[in-house]
């Protein structure tokens, strides 16, 4: 398989999250790839949810290796769905996040099939990762017995010299403030929901400080954070707000629990304020001494000709669903910049090197069986 050509073809599909027709066209293209004709391929979809591409070389749900990723992308202008290679970089929406690495996964499956490696191997590509992975959640609920010794997670794009071993727990919380609406000229006759909300958010900030570029930057960045993603309150300029709300994006390390967060939230609430945890997940924490991770790192260093280092990130990953099932999750991808931005690109050599690393790693595992 020509991985870069495949990546470019994938980029041409306008698979913005929710564009189901285009997503299904993209999945049909992947299913029809000549190197995958002997694979078992299913396109799983529950009503009103995004489809999931599930390809493997076995009927078993107990895998040696799974590759996890997604093919949906954030919205972009028309020109970003016309891939372009310049100066060793592939530009386009999804080049980095993460169609190039979906192509790598497809190439790895082709290799396993062609070489008849004695591995139970599969790939899972969701299509609503950018908006919460509800389709993947439905897939995993339907396949409750699915397991994997090793999960290769390529959805951590940015730097091929880094292997991610820790991801935080994203917790989204809605703060709701209720007041009493009156005319803005007589505030003493009402209760301002906006004020209630601001006081509550200020109390939250006493526990979770504000960090910013050019402002406060912590020495140790592996700590709990929150940003106020959305703040809404009031209808018109001359009426005291009756209702206000904020959506808070907490990122918790493995050292913090939901119970501790709830306790802090309870303390932060002022009269008229309440909260609801909209969604919560779990952190992914891998041991740097894990035998699979050490073997993978050694192979990658040999292929790249340089040392790799371990890194922690605040972002979430769908591989958490397998981490809690006991899988070793290896989070590694190619290099690039501009994820979700107008100039998104991936370094083509890093895509090819990642593919080589995966193939060598799979071959090593097969020899050791």
Radius of gyration in whole Å, from Cα? 23 Å
Nearest-integer average pLDDT: 96
The CATH architecture of the largest domain can be given as: 3-Layer(aba) Sandwich
- Number of domain units: 2
Tell how many strands the DSSP assignment holds: 17
CATH class of the largest domain: Alpha Beta
Distinct helical segment count: 9
Strand residue content: 25-35%
- Subunit arrangement of the protein: single chain
**How are strands sequenced across the largest beta sheet?**
1-2-6-3-7-15
CATH superfamily grouping of the largest domain: Zn peptidases
The CATH topology of the largest domain turns out to be Aminopeptidase
Low-confidence stretches: none
The profile of the biggest β sheet is:
6 strands, mixed
How does the helix and strand content classify structurally?
alpha+beta
Any idea what the shape is? elongated
């Amino acid at each position: 398989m020509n991985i870069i050509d495949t990546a470019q073809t994938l980029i041409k599909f306008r698979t913005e999250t929710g564009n189901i027709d285009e997503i299904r066209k993209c999945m049909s293209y992947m299913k029809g790839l000549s190197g995958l004709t002997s694979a078992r391929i299913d396109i799983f979809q529950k009503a009103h949810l995004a489809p999931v591409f599930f390809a493997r070389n076995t009927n078993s749900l107990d895998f040696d290796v799974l590759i996890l990723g997604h093919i949906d992308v954030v919205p972009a202008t028309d020109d970003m769905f016309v891939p372009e290679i310049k100066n060793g970089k592939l530009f386009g929406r999804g080049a980095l996040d993460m169609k190039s690495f979906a192509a790598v996964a497809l190439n790895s499956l082709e290799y396993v099939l062609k070489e008849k490696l004695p591995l139970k191997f599969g790939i899972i590509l969701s299509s609503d990762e950018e908006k919460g992975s509800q389709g993947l959640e439905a897939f995993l609920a339907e396949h409750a017995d699915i397991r994997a010794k090793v999960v290769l997670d390529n959805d951590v794009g940015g730097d091929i010299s880094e292997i991610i071993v820790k991801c935080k727990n994203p917790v989204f919380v809605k703060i709701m403030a209720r007041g009493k609406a009156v005319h803005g000229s007589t505030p003493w006759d009402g209760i301002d929901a906006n004020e209630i909300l601001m006081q509550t958010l200020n109390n939250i900030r006493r526990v979770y400080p504000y960090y910013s570029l050019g402002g406060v930057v912590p020495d140790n960045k592996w700590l709990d954070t929150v940003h106020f993603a959305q703040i809404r309150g009031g209808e018109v300029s001359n009426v005291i707000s009756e209702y206000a709300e904020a959506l808070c994006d907490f990122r918790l390390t493995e050292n913090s629990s939901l119970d501790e967060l709830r306790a802090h939230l309870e303390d932060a609430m002022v009269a008229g304020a309440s909260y609801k945890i909209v969604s919560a997940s779990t952190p992914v924490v891998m041991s740097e001494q894990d035998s699979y991770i050490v073997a993978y790192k050694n192979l990658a260093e040999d292929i790249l000709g340089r040392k790799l280092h371990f890194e922690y990130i605040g972002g979430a990953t769908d591989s958490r669903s397998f981490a809690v099932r006991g899988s070793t999750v290896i989070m590694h991808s190619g290099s690039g910049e501009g994820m979700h931005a107008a100039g998104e690109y991936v370094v083509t050599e890093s895509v090819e090197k990642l593919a080589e690393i995966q193939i060598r790693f799979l071959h090593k595992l097969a020899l050791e069986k």
